[in-house]
Amino acid sequence: MSSAPNDHSLDMLICRLEIIATLSEEERAAIRSLPAKTRILNAGQDIVCDGDKPSQSCLILNGWACRYKLLGAGRRQILSFHIPGDIPDLHSLHIHTMDHSLAALKETTVVLIPHDSLRELTARFPGLAAILWRETLIDAAVFREWMTGMGRRTAYERMAHLFCELYLRLQAVGLAQSYHCVLPITQVDLADALGLSNVHVNRVLKEMREQNLVTLRGGSLTIEAWDELMRACEFDPAYRHLEKRAS
Amino acid sequence: MSSAPNDHSLDMLICRLEIIATLSEEERAAIRSLPAKTRILNAGQDIVCDGDKPSQSCLILNGWACRYKLLGAGRRQILSFHIPGDIPDLHSLHIHTMDHSLAALKETTVVLIPHDSLRELTARFPGLAAILWRETLIDAAVFREWMTGMGRRTAYERMAHLFCELYLRLQAVGLAQSYHCVLPITQVDLADALGLSNVHVNRVLKEMREQNLVTLRGGSLTIEAWDELMRACEFDPAYRHLEKRAS
DNA sequence: CGGCATGTTGAATCTAATCAATCCACGTGG
DNA sequence: CCACGTGGATTGATTAGATTCAACATGCCG
Fold first, then answer.
1. How confident is the model at residue A218 (pLDDT cuts 50, 70, 90)?
2. Distance between CA A16 and CA A14 in Å, rounded?
3. Distance CA B87, CA B110 (A)
């Protein structure tokens, strides 16, 4: 953990929020002056654990993370994947006990922002409060989409849907272009995210590869037929609620 | 739709918020003076639809509702059930387009509160804003729990878990006692909520009945063995985040 | 080089879905 | 009052999809 010179790590957050809203110069300045500590995590390392009562939230600067819950008999459910610009535990600002864990999927750099500072920020700038609130609501909207997938979509559709979602999210932060991106997710992780067994994930991936739809290999994803991929899972990006709106 | 004399329908909301927080007298008064219209819906009637851009949120006064998404080929996923005291579409305050629908499961009375008034309220009382934000975060926490159920729990466990959740929620608003409550949910609804087929729901219910665990019949639920029911699904109520905290 | 994590494949098994009847309670209209 | 229609619940038979178990391949790292 290193106390940051605060180069401009928080610009990442500004950039992210401006995807869904317009910020004033004051608001940008206030965000930039948030106290922040940088921390680097190894692959597999937990950032926050189920049951913790964190006093800070983390912004991902680079790397990958996922949230997950553990059940008895070694069962695990991955709830979401997170990429640079995300604040995966923003909810802990108002919900004090973690009901799941957050872990790095590869070497990952995060910026830790104290809840006190965030609370002060939202008190001074109600507009920012609304935007952050909105971020957590979008998070919930994505949960709803995943839920409907797990309940009512086939394994094939679920996988296709996840690839569409991840590609668009990566593209939005400049980490994907021309239907190609890094995806440091193992087949076991995919299985735990989609509610499948690792063996079945392997077979569905094989099928998609053979159909020249998508190829996932060596930690990188190539989408060979974007339109068909979207059609296969009835993908509608509306659930991510990216319509911009002057708060 | 009738313009309400505003007897005290909003006390329901106060009561609900005081489950997770402590309100000042001013805050209570401000809530009570919210403009509100009462509306009565028939069973099966939609309250808000996927794609709508509502300008108000609804508080359930009595009855039952559920949120759901429709997919191609007639598939439906129920995302949540709602009982008196819930504000199932509070998120529409900051997310402007509905990504799912909300429908009454039986004759249901709701109070409609304009977004403008809510925004004004949260601007004047940042403490209330935090509490409402928190409500939406708890909503998301429940989604996470359902997700892990659909991904990693068996049909039997999922069903048991849902019954535990609903019973405790009903109990909290005085609609259940001595392990018995009204549950106007058909087996088809249960199936769409749990990601199962109606036939399988029927079989699991039969199994539970034969084990003297729970009986669901004629719209009412009786839990014969609460402890065992909780054990069967590893139920831990923590995910509903009811710890009270002076905001 | 050995060890370990990850990915791949086959075979057997099982859970839950699907298809198809039937039943029952209830309300409606003749 | 009874015939009828309807929505929900129930049951059986069959099948599809996914899991489990097991073996083996591959690649990376110390």
1. confident
2. 5
3. 9
CATH architecture of B155-240: Sandwich (2.60)
Inter-chain contact A151–B150, Cβ cutoff 8 Å? yes
Segment B38-92, tens digit of pLDDT: 999 999 999 999 999 999 999 999 999 999 999 988 899 999 999 999 999 999 9
pTM of the model: 0.95
Give, in Å, how far the C1' of C5 lies from the CA of A197: 17
Give residues 160-199 of chain A lying near strand C (Cβ < 7 A). Answer: 186-188, 198-199
Nucleotide nearest to A156 (CA to C1'): D17
CB contact under 8 A, B151 and A72: no
Q: Is the CB of A220 under 7 A from strand C?
A: no
Return the biggest CA–CA distance within chain B.
55
Cβ of A205 less than 7 A from strand C:
yes
What's the fold here for domain B2-145?
Jelly Rolls (2.60.120)
Q: How far, CA to CA in Å, does A46 sit from each of A102, A190, B7, B50, B166?
A: 6, 18, 51, 37, 32
Euclidean distance between CA atoms A166 and A83, whole angstroms: 9
The CATH number given to A152-240 is 1.10.10.10
Nucleotide with smallest C1' distance to residue B219 CA: D8
Query: B88 and B59 in contact (C-beta within 8 Å)?
Result: no
- Average model confidence (pLDDT) across chain B: 94
